[in-house]
Amino acid sequence: MKRYFVLLLILLNFSCDFDKFESEVYLPKIFEEGMVLQRDQKISVWGKGIPSKKVRVSVAGLMGSTEVLPDSTWSIKLPETKAGGPYVLKVNNQEIKDVYIGDVWVAGGQSNMEWALKSAVIGAEEEFQEGGFPEIRFFKVPQSYSAIELDDVVGGEWKVATPENMLDFSAVAWFFSKRNHLEKEVPVGIIESNWGGTPAEGWTSVAVLSGMNASYSEEAKDIQDNPTKWQEEVEANEKRREMRNLLVSKPDSLTALEVASLSYDDSKWKKIVLPKANPMQHIAWIRKVFKASADNATLHLPAIDQMAFIYLNGQFLHYKDWGAPMPEIEIPAESMNDGNNVITIRTINTWNNQPRVGESGEMYLTQGGKSISLEGVWSYSNDIVEPMLPKVEFLNWKPGMMYNAMIYPISKYAIKGAIWYQGESNAGRADEYHELFSAMISNWRRVWNIGDFPFLFVQLANFMERKSPQPDSDWAFLREAQTETLALPKTGMAVIIDIGEENDIHPKNKKDVGERLWIQARKVAFGEKILASGPVFESAVLEENSLILSFSEAGEGLKTSDGSDEVKGFIVGNGSNFKEVSAKIVDENIIKIDLDNPNISELRYAWADNPEVNLVNNLGLPAVPFRSNLGEK
Fold this sequence. Notes:
3 domains, SIAE, 13 helices, 11-stranded mixed beta sheet, hydrolase, Galactose-bd-like_sf, globular, Jelly Rolls, Rossmann fold, alpha+beta
């Protein structure tokens, strides 16, 4: 009888204890079906609830409980556990299903990290055809900004790597996550927090920036001291953005067909000459009448920046989205007139409000083996068909603004590390970038409070017109500042000086970028004893009329990527007077440069916006750009 009485007491106590965990709780948006939690680290779960009420969290056999604090917040850390899943995360009465435990990375930076697989990325079609991987998931933090630190991101959802979802995944992060998943055989979660065109100070706390002596410090201090004033401007700016986005989304269909028809009267429109002038602003409508025959034709108009709706003789032809390439458009004979035809384009550039259409020699139709030029006089209007756009400021660029809305709210979420691709928007301010970038990394590590987590970043690619020598290159100085950041512990840099594109700041080879970051991750994050970098300059010694250079990270030996006997990319000089020099590999890690004049003070390699280089190691990884005073390490 006594045994049954004790059992009854136990059951009653369990029932009473269970009743304590019935209250409603609120979770951050990142806690959602399909999520990935970090393995081998304590799992943080947090949110809001009713003060003094109990909260219990369980997942994968782990359990913890706490009480909601007087400020309505609560937080629980569960013990670390191994990779696995799917599990159900239970928080009081809530259940979040399809939860995996594996490796989680934050993918930050500007447009080259944001660049999606669907945007003409080399090899993307093969990735879509492969079908994706159900244990790779992406969470894209919506682009937002704030003058004050937010408790939560404004939206977002975990998406499984299916061919449909992968279209919008960061290409760099995809190729990185795929290698992580396949080689470590664990689920992988990518938290995308990136925004095209943004500078590093926007991703760093104003509390850090205000104490520095840099171009952004005074403004950072003002934001720190007057958050209410700045937040009011943020909200007003966002209302203007909402109105702008509503206006630019798509034209009224009936109006568009009327304006695009051959009979439309555009006599009150301005006249502009394309592509020479390109003076357009706001929602730009342009029209050009041309003569052709009623036969099949092909429209060739590859250069449009950014978005455009294209019509022919009152019929919709094509929509060109931001980041998407402009294809050759096949036009059936029934859409063409024998005689006068009119092409009409509605184009918008929400980046700088300066849409552009066409380049010289790249504006024409082909028909019957002949070319019909579209260059010359066009009719143009930006206020007759649709209203002009409200002015939207780049307040997200301001110090701390994106950090407050896109980094701080996720900083309690346990991660393996971060991958980062940014720097283009700080080129020209390289003198302050090393301190800024180092401060940003340290800032993130402090707020995550999980130690010096791995931070892996991409050095700027080669870009713009090829010039040599170019000792004053802003991009070269920015690359140097990035390299100097490797002084921080647990950092790694992927060099891509060999895969950029002269005419495109967004190289389409994102596979090599992601995989070079992964090689760094294997060494920095997972402790593998591997060669993860291209050749790194160690020293230069002047011997008579020759420079003898030694390199580390040569692997099985220095090589040239093109099989040439000559190593390209070296310049020497005094002050601002530089010239190219010929170099040759003379040993596994030694390069020799014969000098016409040994009276030089400086040596540089890959020192230009778009240098011609070919020095690699046996893995094909390119040498790290550098400059050095003669004889100095």
